[in-house]
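Give me the fold.
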Amino acid sequence: MYDILIKNGRVIDPANNINEYLDVAVNDGRISAVCREIEDDAKNIVDASGCVVVPGLIDHHAHIYPLAKIGLPAESVCFSSGVTTVVDAGSTGAFTFGKHKNFLEDSKLTVKAYINVCSYGLDSLPIQMEDVNPAHYDEGAIRELFEEYGAKYLLGLKLRTSREVVGESGYEPLRKTVAVADKLGLSVMVHCTNPPGEMSELLGYLRAGDVMTHMYMNKGSKIIDDFRKVKKAVHDARNRGVIFEAADARAHFSFEVSEPAVREGFYPDILATDLTKLSMYLRPTAFNMANQLAKYYMLGIPEETLFALCTINPARHMGIDAGTLTEGHPADIAVFTREEHVAQFGDRADDTAELRFGEYIYRPLMTVKNGEIVFRDIAF
């Protein structure tokens, strides 16, 4: 007897090139079978007719409480939007991460983290910016942190390279961040909104496996040129292995950049949210991961590709056993319907927003984490 049997859904598992109507069986916290017409009995049989059944989503960029004072209540927000793994993108630094160990161990949600090069991370937000003066980086403390926690919790280093943060230092904080990461064998995530110089220079510092987040922002130098074409330097960066992430929050996205880039076929490698308590459930911007799915579907990214951006793509980048419905793997599963519904999408959270309207929403109906139902819509 299976613990859970999800029947009659359209299974989309990009890791295995699956997009067809199949049943999914779960036992002892793992995927037991994915095939047609599983007849065995189960403790919990779920009829997913009219639904898409996908691997549990991975939100590769958020800020969660208590790692950040402005962080979102991660389990409630993530599980209710089909997310089973979340990455905290630099809320803590080398001096602050360790105090959250108990929280990370107790969470049912899988939580990984990037470490801010500022030793205190974003502890001061929203009052003031982090200290990214390269002279203040504590390389020794960073090294010790990754030696103690790296394999279990940590992914790499995070830097916000906005003018508002780096001031007159330009790209020197980025250069130093990459140098430290080189020494320690780490990847880097770079927040690029309103960079202190040309986008081509920013990308020139990044290596294969580094992540440029907020790829569709339109403040300062952008990924598109004056002719609304993706710049050669951007294509070159992708070709050498730089990872481009869409994580939109309240102001790190624009239709000005996303629409021509998507038309050109320059999709994200990873789709995330950059949610905090200031942006969760805020219309018409990121809202939650389900809303991000609907927005990027509206922009023209095919559904199977769309789910790859928040399942197997980030899982492979992170080197974790997730993002797939392969038999024997952890049973992290999300069930959605794609419903006809007038949906409003905006690129800002104020009266300067450009708006677009889509015809569909993705409605989360059930989330399974390690074989346990952690969210289910009352009508499902």
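Residues 139-153 form the longest helix (15 residues).
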